[in-house]
Amino acid sequence: ICHTRTRAHTNPHPYATTLKSTETAPTLLRPSRRSTGREGQMNELVKSLPSPTLPGLHLPSVDTHKGWLFKWTNYLKGYQRRWFVLSNGLLSYYRTQAEMAHTCRGTIPLATAHIEVGDTCHLVLTSGGRSYHLKATSEGECQKWVSALQQAKANATLLMHHSDDSGDEVPVPQEDRTLTQGVLKTLASKLDDLSTCNELIGKHGAALQRSLSELEDLRGSTDSTDKVKAVNERATLFRITSNAMINACRDFVDVAESHSRRWQKALQHEREQRHHLEETIEQLAKQHNSLERAWRENPTSYTGETLSVSQTSCRSQEGDASDENDEAEFFDAMEDSPAFITVTATGNIDYCMSNPLSFSLQDTSGANHMQLRRTRRSRIPDKPNYSLNLWSIMKNCIGKDLSKIPMPVNFNEPLSMLQRLTEDLEYSELLDRAARCDSSLEQMCLVAAFSVSSYSTTVHRTAKPFNPLLGETYELDRLDEYGYRSICEQVSHHPPAAAHHVTSQRGWTLWQHITIDSKFRGKYISVVPLGNIHLQFHSSGNHYVWSKVTSTVHNIIVGKLWIDQSGDIDIVNTTTKDTCRLKFSPYSYFSREVPRKVTGVVEDREGTAHYILSGTWDDKIESAKIVDSSQGCGGSEGKQKTVYQTLPPKLLWKKYPLPENAENMHFFSSLALTLNEPEEGVAPTDSRLRPDQRLMEAGLWDEANSQKQRLEERQRLERKRRAQANQALEEGEYIEGYQPLWFEKRTDETGDNIFIYKGGYWEAKERQDWSQCPQIF
């Protein structure tokens, strides 16, 4: 009716395109004068519709797939239900669908992944050296996932190839920024067009629905012709708007698709740059740490030379002062970061902070060879990959003291417990700084940071140190490098107890008497150090006392071994009565707190808080000075919480990066690598001379186990002989009737009955008189 009673518009809007090949092209109508309002409405619609820009393209297939799959977690929990989302070549998984808004549990890039289909609804994805075992609920569901994953992998691979083939040019930042802004404006404009079309579709769709309802009610009436005309007009408007919506969508897809490859290439370039930058920063940190340690070990050996650390003296990378001295030589730091520096000639060594990879030497006279006195080793033989069933040994040890159970060296690291105690001095410079503090509260902050730093080396060290033999000793002489000397002695075997004494020329003395209580609880091993650590500063006389927290090794039966530290450390300055309580938060899978978190408050003798300490025991500790405090609400047991207002935090301690290849060297730190290094002139009871420990470090584990059994059997016979010879002694006068050689039992000023260094060791070493030492090895 409408085609016979009206004529077609002479200039149909270009959005009025053919929907199907068999469908008549829709036309805009010229209604009678009674329909002037509708004509104006249609003209306004034509004006408001967005104009086309690019020819239409078919929508690309989107590789998006969602659903539940079962993912293998571990032997205890087995397969767990996870929500998987496949999009843009990435397979991400979440615990629940609600987690998609904030927490992604993992992402697998399919471009480089290997997809393997197993039996009974199983499939395995391998990416980056890690395998993901997945299971679907049915064979049909598994096949759908496999098809979607393979298609997504093909698309991701094709996109990567397109990105590689599009050229290697990387636009300059300004042009790239301008281009990106222009594309974003175009996409924003297209989105506005889509929004306009959406509103019009909704409006005219509702009007068309009303007209159809009215036409149904007026069937057979005299007004049916006008109603049919109105329905035809509104249907035409709806078609025009729908076609406009389709073309606007095509335009949006065209613009996005035309720039997607460029964006993908730019994103890949940024990822590569970021990865390269991270590697460079890590390498620079290691080399800077090595150079700093090399200078600190012997700063006095640079006679006639001045080591200056200054940014202003460094040459800029643009070479603005490159012609200042044509005779300057630059030496690149080696990747293995040697612990020595050898230079020729005299003059000034300018260590440039802006370029830690090099240092410059200004030659002013003839050749004068200079080298540090001692070069410490920076590596040990790689750990052999020997397999051993831990459960076959540990199943008979539940509830027992592990110090009384013979264990093969497979569970050890090539260090003794005495050396592990000495390793607490890794960050002795914290005590050097504390000795120079005028404020006892600031000094307390540094002492607290030192107490936390001793745990930083344990985060990957799940192996057990060797139990020292009775009478075994260990010395560490770093007088020239760090200004301290350390001596340890095993003063008891059952229970195992060690005494430790350190004297520093930089203003402090540290001593401790530690007894180790270790129990196996089935799933984990708990190690509880009993005893106090004492620290005294020479100038102020401040005497600090604290104890250690409990160490727990988890996943003894199945899974990967990991270690946690938990408990409280109460540090007390017995001179000023200042206190600090450090809380080591135990790890919890359900906790939202930072893992390995440590917090503390430093208070004076009146109980007033002055500093807040925070950080993690495996990374860093910061302090923040309190400027105000107030009582809040929400405390437990009816107590109010105290809210502190602080200044910005200051870094007290930061962990040194591990040496290169540390994962194959028992995760030893730079200091730990040198602890078992052979040294001349040490006592015959020194841990460095222990044969089983030495053989284990060399990788000869079978020979080490034989030597370990020989030493333990000899120690049992010696203990039995000593017990028979001392039956007349009162029980408990000395442990097993044994008297240590370098330590004696006293009651110190805090009331503790402990073993304290009585002197004589360093004098005996100077004379090389070890006639008193027993032959324990």
Automatic annotation (TrEMBL):
Skewed-composition ranges (Polar residues): 298-316
Membership in a protein family: Belongs to the OSBP family.
Listed GO CC annotations: cytosol; perinuclear endoplasmic reticulum; plasma membrane
Gene Ontology molecular function: cholesterol binding
Protein known as: Oxysterol-binding protein
Principal subcellular localisation of the protein: membrane
Keyword set includes Transport: yes
PH domain: residues covered: 62-154
Keywords from the UniProt entry: Coiled coil, Lipid transport, Lipid-binding, Membrane, Phosphoprotein, Transport
Gene3D superfamilies: 2.40.160.120, Pleckstrin-homology domain (PH domain)/Phosphotyrosine-binding domain (PTB) (2.30.29.30)
Regions annotated as coiled coil: 267-294
Annotated CDD domains: PH_OSBP_ORP4
Membrane topology according to the record: Peripheral membrane protein
SUPFAM superfamilies in UniProt: Oxysterol-binding protein-like, PH domain-like
Signal peptide: none
Residue ranges, annotated region (Disordered): 295-325
SMART domains: PH
PROSITE patterns recorded: OSBP (PS01013), PH_DOMAIN (PS50003)
Single GO BP term: lipid transport
Native source organism of the sequence: Haplochromis burtoni
Subcellular compartments: Membrane
Domain of life, per lineage: Eukaryota
Transport in keyword set: yes
